[in-house]
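User: I'm writing a short report section on ligand binding and want a predicted complex to refer to. Could you take this sequence and zinc ion and write out the structure as tokens? A short remark afterwards would be nice.
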Amino acid sequence: MRMKQTLCILLTVVGFGFAPTGMSQALGAHKTENVIVVMIDGMRWQEVFRGADGGLIKTLGPDALGAPKERAARAQQLYSRATPSERRQALMPFLWTVVATQGQIFGNRDVGSDSQVINGLNFSYPGYSETLTGFADPRVHSNDNIPNPNVTVFEWLNAKPGFSGKVAAFGAWEVFQGIFNQQRCGFVVNAGYDPLTAIPATPELALVNTLKAETVRIWPDEAFDPMPFHTAVEYLKVVKPRLLFVGLGETDDWAHAGSYAEYLNAAHLADSYVRGLWELVQSIPEYRGRTTLIVLPDHGRGVGGKWTDHGKDIPESRETWMAFLGPDTPALGERESAGPVTESQVAATLAALLGEDYHTAVPRSGTPIGDVIGK
Ligand SMILES: [Zn+2]
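Assistant: Sure. The structure tokens for the complex follow:
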């Protein structure tokens, strides 16, 4: 199965390359030919828009992590600032210097912008499934690694001639195997600690595969974020997919563990990874000026003492945020008095950016976000 996939991808790269500009124009006036989706598991809108919480940053994480006092002191030094706008820029500098000036970001309740999941469960599998299929399905109600009964917009696009073999997904959490339905979907889904063997190993990829096998494992079903990120970067450089998913997980894990310092560090690292992907694609001719980036979480979290948790009994954890940056998205920046937008709109939005009408094909999916696609 893997071997066939490898051959298929290599043939596609050699044979077709990127869709000619004319094809894209025939599907509507848009410049986006590639989309990268980065999801940051359980990253709260509160930290995204207000920066590190002055009360929580002083709390110490569990002793079991080691040096909780030093971790908290360092986090305070790195992320504490006088105002919310300084704090958020210290925490997520790429989001606040580049995305918020050249793109759009929804979800700051402090200025009347709302973004949320509609699945009612407020945990990961239902959140990813809602985002990637465009609808909530009551059958999707657990985090078990079972094949998604529904087709994601990734699988839907991979079935189209311009995208076949140009779709790939990488994730820290092994359950992405089920969410994307690895057995059925027909594209590379690399998740958890699985080595990437679907392409010939570059020296960097060989090293990442080794680190996946040898690095200490804290969570049995989730690798540290550098693993999926660097795997995805190597794949991007070799195959140049048109649709790429990168799922990061440490924010959620550290939050459940009660370490606010490590939760912030994971958010900061995720922001640097988003910058890394954006700067990388701007350096590659096939991507430069033709790529849209979408960044969002799969759910929110509770407030106050419940910041560590989420789920259907924590209503605030339905609250999310989402950011868009690309050649078709007007630079409206931080959205005020906007929305509500829902995660169920993301699938049709990303398809529309690529000139494809997912919402008509899958009517139960949310409608594309007009402000983002420039309509
Ligand atoms: Zn969680």
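A remark for your report: The pocket of zinc ion is lined by residues 42, 124, 252, 256, 310 (CB under 6 Å). Strands lie at 34-40, 104-106, 115-116, 167-171, 188-191, 243-248, 291-296, 322-325, 333-334, 341-342.
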